[in-house]
Amino acid sequence: MFKSSLVQKKVVILGGGESGTGAAILAKSKGFDVFLSDRGQLNQKYIDILHRENIPFEQGIHSESRVLESDLIIKSPGIPDTVPLIIAVKEKGIPVISEIEFASRYTSAKLIAITGSNGKTTTTLLTYHLLKNAGLNVGLAGNIGDSFAWQVAEKQFDYYVLEISSFQLDNIEDFHPQIAVLLNITPDHLDRYGYNFQNYIDSKFNIVRNQTTADHLIYFEDSEVIAAELSKRNIDSQKIKISLANKLSEGAYLDEQKLISNAANGTFEQNFEELPIKGPHNAINALAAISVAQLLGVSSEKISEGLKSFTNAPHRLEEVEVIDGVTYINDSKATNVDSVFYALGSFERPIVLIAGGVDKGNDYSQIEALVRNKVKALIVLSKDSDKLESYFFGIVPQIYITQDVQDAVNKAQEWSIAGDIVLLSPACASFDLFKNYEDRGEKFKAAVRNLTSQK
Where is the Mur ligase central domain positioned along the sequence (predicted)? Predict the structure, then answer.
């Protein structure tokens, strides 16, 4: 049902990608007068769908007069609140919400919402896999997969597992996950938040804004930022801790190489080394997913079975090839420093690190010790190499600058020997040289595979 006290008639969707098109379909199905506007060029796939659904749209422009006539704006997460059009909309008093907010108003499914600066995609996919493997009627949406709104319009699920970004959380009102997962909060997207870390923290904590005492918050207690925020906030939900540092009588933790989760309905144990995902960051992700599954009554047998059969998404510590004893790893999804911290911590062998891209206000001191101890060479793949090069000069024995991914991989091969790791873990956004992190990862994989054809 529509929870807002307003009765909206005209809905304008800003942004015509997956979430925007899905929101338009849901809005039309609920009887709204819908118009979609995208300042860029729409993908032909979405143009065809909008034509098929008889939803009017424009591309290459935002017609401000038409936008300002609306009763409700559903905004793409990629559009900042600071652009002049959104400022004008808000000055007129028109509500601006995200697709996840809109979709949540029309489903009675239980919502499991997962956020964090790092690890949310893996945790979301793993949680979905555990629940689906256990036979639950569950959908996957949010910042991954098919549009949440689109699925609400056309499908019936009992549960949704949602990957939620800070940008999506910026425009919620009543969004109410029964289970919220907060993995970590480290500086990211500071360019979007006025270079004020607290603004970003506040955005992440919107995930629990509407939770009640009947709901649950699963969080990583080792995070100093999360711990500090919890100490000064009044949060009603029941809290479940996960930790790598402490053994918890209630909650989930890593003991040596064993994942242990003590829940109200029993204790679950699993040897972490038996799982296809590796590294301390993935232990956190697994503990969070296990905690969700236990809350929903999934048996230990089914949880263990699901953990062992999970296949992670591409571009997240993805092994590409082993060539002449050198292992090439694609971690293109690592678009901030914290992600690289976890990536470097996942390997004990010498590393040739490929990093660089669009810096988002990065603080490289977080990885300095790991780089000093583990990285034998740094290859900066970027249009702007100054910050990385100057920071790690004298810390890394060899540094090479390039704007060509094949050149970067060729140099990595030249500088590596059997037993080494060549790791693409950029710490930066991809938009200087690539369409997105997926494009960067795919081009890296192609360049690696070219090494074998060059022999």
Answer: 114-293
